[in-house]
Design brief:
This protein is mainly alpha-helical. Helices cover 62% and strands 6% of the residues. The strands form two sheets. Strands 3-4-5-6-7 form a five-stranded mixed beta sheet. Strands 1-2 form a two-stranded antiparallel ribbon.
């Protein structure tokens, strides 16, 4: 379970696959180059931090992960949370939160929680993903239009109000560069090996440099990109800092887990493979522990880069490691050239990313579904955009859970059985007058346990025997068990014999683990309703 896919793939690795991985890794590295810088800038950090992350975390995720083809690095999902942490606690606070998130991810993997991440409701995932897309788009308006603004408000509504107030300062050159970048990427032939993003950056950077267009560049804002990786260093925080950053660390960990496992599932579908979810979480955790040591930011699986890897022949983790090596070579040799990249071009790239990230088709699909899913989607989306990503995800999960429990409780029912028409086992059998039979259908959990409590209220007189027919109960939890224990106590007080008939494996395991089987009495468990009535002379 905890052996990386890279080691498994080495057993059957060949020169032919190495050639395919080299080609895929080179292309993915070129695709990741502008995205890594753009996501870092969108988070309020220098572009090199995104490159450091793509190199260090990207290599570790591929080398240690549980997926054959997943590509790791900075993604749009982290832009909102990284920007918020950086604005409040600075980069040191972000480094501490990222390291804590890495430890949480490792713990999740060791506890084998990877299997359960997939149970996060689809409307919640769609809601916060669409909300992140809207926020990313809103953060790029200033650079896309070249607005002359000293600072941009962090609040979503205030941000847009400030944009409208400064529309008179639109820079036509920046707007032209941004539009050209979007059009070129959108219509770039998919079969061409050179990515459209790289082509766009080369063309607009060359034109802006030689034509001396008055636009802001990476060099004018950040002073260029350093060559090479920084020496590793540890950022240690006080206990007070860690307590303040713990909610943010959990948010980073949950987002990284969701994104990485979704990415692995998508990759499985493309190559017909099967990933190791817990090993993937451990690799994500290690990568996020190491990334801030080299000045990086949070990382996770990137679906678009993974798809690019697969489409270009990548079939083993070697392609992901090569992609990281390609970025390192670019960082070592061509870092100064990145200073000439116009920020409007990177804004155009992120606007395209936000469009694809918006999942508008999924939103349209959910809006045609049940009102409960629509409610969860809209509330998660609005809270993510207007309040905070952590609040949006948290409230969305809680709301979805309550709605699900309500739905499960509705389909759980307790009904009285009186004659042969009520149950197949009653055909040809007469129910004695002093015997009451109730059938429980559905999951007998805490949300539905109160329905059984209503049984006694319906008695016209205390029966000699009460039979609970439970062949329709596949799930029993502690609340359901407690209700049964209370009912057993009351039945014994009233000299009523309580019989359970048709118990399935999971409820029986709960009974045995709680020693309820012995307290209840072996004679009071019957294989089915017919067996119970036969003993009573029915």
């Amino acid at each position: 379970m905890f052996i990386p896919k890279s080691i498994i793939c080495l057993k059957t690795y060949s020169w032919k696959q190495l050639n395919a991985d080299l080609a895929a890794g080179l292309i993915v590295g070129l695709v990741a180059l502008p995205l890594a810088m753009a996501f870092s800038i969108a988070s309020g950090l220098p572009p090199e931090r995104g490159l450091y992350t793509a190199v260090v975390a990207g290599f570790l995720i591929s080398a240690l992960g549980g997926s054959r083809v997943s590509i790791g690095g900075p993604t749009g999902a982290f832009v909102v949370i990284v920007g918020g942490i950086t604005a409040k606690f600075g980069y040191d606070g972000l480094a501490i939160a990222t390291g804590m998130a890495g430890l949480i991810l490792i713990l999740m993997g060791l506890m084998r929680l990877g299997t359960y991440i997939k149970f996060i409701p689809y409307p919640v995932i769609t809601g916060f993903t669409t909300g992140i897309a809207v926020i990313i788009f809103s953060t790029q308006v200033k650079d896309f239009l070249g607005l002359a603004m000293v600072s941009v408000p962090s609040d979503f509504l205030e941000k847009w109000a400030a944009y409208f107030q400064n529309l008179s300062s639109v820079n036509g050159y920046a707007l032209g560069i941004g539009l050209f970048t979007i059009v070129l990427i959108s219509f770039w032939p998919k079969g061409w090996k050179i990515p459209g993003t790289i082509t766009a950056l080369i063309l607009v950077s060359t034109a802006a440099y030689f034509a001396h267009w008055p636009v802001e560049t990476i060099g004018s804002r950040f002073g260029g990109i350093p060559q090479g990786l920084p020496l590793p260093h540890f950022v240690l925080g006080s206990w007070t800092q860690m307590k303040l950053l713990l909610p943010s660390a959990f948010t980073i960990a949950i987002l990284a887990a969701i994104e990485s496992l979704l990415c692995a599932v998508v990759a499985d579908g493309m190559i017909g493979g099967h990933h190791k979810s817990n090993m993937e979480l451990i690799a994500q955790g290690i990568a996020n522990c190491v990334s801030p040591m080299f000045g990086g930011i949070p990382a996770t699986g990137a679906i678009a880069r993974t798809a690019t890897n697969v489409k270009n022949g990548g079939r083993t983790p070697m392609a992901g490691m090569i992609h990281a090596a390609v970025l390192l070579v670019i960082l070592l040799t061509a870092g100064p050239l990145a200073a000439h990249i116009p920020l409007a071009a990177l804004a155009g790239i992120l606007i395209v990313v936000s469009y694809h990230m918006s999942e508008w088709r999924s939103v349209r699909f959910i809006l045609t579904g049940p009102i409960s899913d629509i409610t969860v989607l809209l509330i998660t989306f609005l809270l993510t955009v207007l309040v905070d990503l952590t609040v949006g995800v948290g409230v969305g999960l809680v709301l979805a859970s309550f709605l699900f429990m309500g739905q499960m409780a509705q389909i759980t029912n307790v009904r009285v059985l009186k004659d042969a028409g009520d149950h197949e086992f009653l055909k040809g059998i007469t129910i004695p007058q002093d015997v009451e039979i109730y059938s429980i259908q559905g999951s007998f959990f805490f949300g539905a346990a109160n329905k059984l409590m209503e049984v006694e209220r319906n008695f016209f007189k205390t029966p000699r025997v009460l039979i609970l027919e439970m062949s329709g109960v596949l799930l029993l939890d502690a609340s359901g068990l407690k209700v049964l224990e209370n009912m057993l106590s009351r039945c014994r007080e009233k000299k009523t014999r309580l019989i359970l008939a048709g118990i399935h494996a999971q409820p029986m395991m709960v009974f045995q683990k709680a020693n309820f089987y012995e307290r209840f009495g072996e004679d009071n468990f019957k294989g089915d309703l017919r067996e119970a009535l036969a003993e009573l002379g029915g």
